[in-house]
Amino acid sequence: MRVNFFRALQDLAKERKNIILLTGDLGFKLFDSFRSQYPDRFYNVGVAESNMIGIAAGLSLSGKNVYCYSIIPFLIMRTFEHIRIDLAYNNLKVKLVGAGGGFTYGLEGYTHFGLEDLALMRSLPNMTVVVPADPQEAISLAKASVEYDGPIYIRLGKTGEPFIHEKPIEFRIGRSIILSEGKDIAIFAIGSMVYPLIATVELLKKAGFNATLINMHTLKPLDKAIIEQVSSSHSFIFTVEEHYVNGGLGSAVAEVLAESGFNGSFRRIGIPNDLGKYIGKSDYLKGKYGLTTEGVYKKIIECVEEV
After folding, report:
1. Which residue, 99, 113, 193, 111, is CA-closest to 155?
2. Sign of the alpha-carbon torsion through 206, 241, 215, 247
3. What is the mean pLDDT of the chain?
4. In this model, does residue 307 exceed pLDDT 80?
5. Once rounded to an integer, what is the mean pLDDT over residues 18-44?
6. Which of 61, 103, 219, 240 lies 20 to 30 Å (CA to CA) from residue 178?
7. Which DSSP letter does residue 292 get?
8. How far apart are CA 137 and CA 118, in angstroms?
9. Whether the Cβ atoms of residue 3 and residue 30 lie closer than 8 Å to each other
């Protein structure tokens, strides 16, 4: 996904001469072509991510369209104060592109988990938060982000993610994508969890349930209209995310449902805050927390049968 995003950005940089790319000592092979083509618009600031945010702010104030790249724990958690003060409060046109959402870098352990980022970023004023679900969405987002005013946090996986969309799509920041329509059960998914839930919907169909699946690629600004629409026609609503259950998609949807008076059943599916002592590859860790096609299916069925 990140390869597709930056390849699209490189193409856009041909016409938009003010695009600047910063990295915190990461992504060298990823950026070889960009650096070769635009040597005066690529800067490796070293292992100094907080400084990178300050540099990005200054460049933005000078009229540049700035993209910052690193893996999520270093780009977001390490630099949060600088993002808050320099970018969010000043509403600057800087894009934070973080790789390694959720358990992508699971083998590196807790220091490399990206599980708090969505909660942190959606709490900031002026910050837009977008999580594409496949490479096609990443390409569309690269194009949309260039003209977007204000700071954006873009959460990506790593590489090799499957395609959900076979051809280019109409991708609008703040507007969700309905992948399947059903009744009674509605599932809001984000990022890496969208693709496996397509198969979850098929399992539910075999069990006699036609579920609505919604790709909530933009966490902020949230598509409140689709949440309110679904809440009026479905008895069961679920959110699924590779993130802590607190503060992310589940919390955002819960806020809308609470204020709209939803009286059905709602469950958040994600990572519990009492994180287990597991280290391993991404698929292994997601399996441990039930974030698989079958795992989510079981949780949904259990909830439906309880009522």
Report:
1. 99
2. positive
3. 96
4. no
5. 95
6. 103
7. S
8. 18
9. yes
- Rounded average pLDDT over 263-271: 97
Query: What is the Cα–Cα distance from 61 to 93, expressed in whole angstroms?
Result: 8
207/145 Cα distance (integer angstroms): 41
According to the model, what pLDDT value does residue 28 have? 80
How far is Cα 136 from Cα 110, in angstroms, rounded to an integer?
A: 30
Q: What is the pLDDT of residues 189-198, one digit of tens each?
A: 999 999 999 9
Q: What is the pTM of this model?
A: 0.97
CA distance 296 to 6: 32
Spatial strand order of the sheet with 236-244 comes to: 177-180, 211-215, 185-189, 236-244, 265-271
CA 47 to chain centre: 24
pLDDT digits (tens, 9 = 90+) for 162-174: 999 988 888 999 9
Residue reference for tokens 């915190």: 24
**Whole-number Å distance between alpha carbons of 12 and 293:** 36
What phi and psi, each to the nearest 5 degrees, are found at residue 268?
Answer: -100, 130
Whole-number pLDDT of residue 83 = 98
Spatial distance between the Cα atoms of 285 and 278, rounded to a whole number of angstroms: 7
Beta bridge partners of 3: none
Torsion 176-60-117-84 (CA) sign: negative
According to DSSP H, which parts of the chain are helical?
Answer: 2-12, 28-37, 49-61, 72, 80-82, 117-122, 135-146, 194-206, 224-231, 249-260, 282-288, 293-306
